[in-house]
């Protein structure tokens, strides 16, 4: 039997910003997004991206959880909405994430709850990372 090496997706992002304007972000795989900061501007600001990362991870993790529970064939869809409560004092930070999940399909409430909790507390890399209080390693290049 031939051994297969699992493919690892490159991860990471680089933001560039001039003296004026807004950040432009490029992912390690070449995806691009421009950041906005105006309250009425359509698009993503940095906090939106944080919420979006958690939202997407939870939705994908719920689908994985449904598979682990053997009910994927009965799952119709998952919606994960994420907002947060920002701290009123310094330093700027999110104090609490507000997560609302909608799991549709031929599933009882107990199964929906099991899917949601497995996704949020065990499968989702983003939520697991946020809960773990990861360290930071800053390098300043010349």
TrEMBL record:
Which keywords appear in this protein's UniProt record, sorted alphabetically? ATP-binding, Nucleotide-binding
Q: Where is this region: Disordered?
A: 1-20
- The protein's superkingdom reads Bacteria
Give the molecular function GO annotations. ATP binding
Q: What is this protein called?
A: ABC transporter ATP-binding protein
């Amino acid at each position: 039997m031939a051994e297969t090496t699992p493919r690892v997706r490159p991860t990471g992002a680089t933001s560039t910003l001039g003296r004026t304007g807004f950040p432009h972000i490029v992912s390690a795989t070449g995806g691009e997004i421009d950041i906005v900061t105006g309250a009425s501007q359509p698009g993503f600001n940095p906090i939106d991206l944080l919420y979006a990362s958690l939202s997407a991870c939870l939705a994908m993790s719920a689908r994985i959880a449904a598979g682990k529970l053997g009910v994927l064939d009965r799952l119709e869809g998952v919606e994960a909405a994420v907002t947060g409560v920002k701290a009123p004092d310094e330093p700027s930070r999110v104090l609490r994430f507000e997560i609302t999940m909608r799991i549709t399909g031929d599933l009882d409430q107990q199964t929906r709850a099991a899917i949601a909790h497995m996704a949020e507390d065990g499968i989702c890399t983003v939520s697991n990372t946020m809960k773990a209080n990861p360290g930071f390693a800053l390098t300043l290049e010349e």
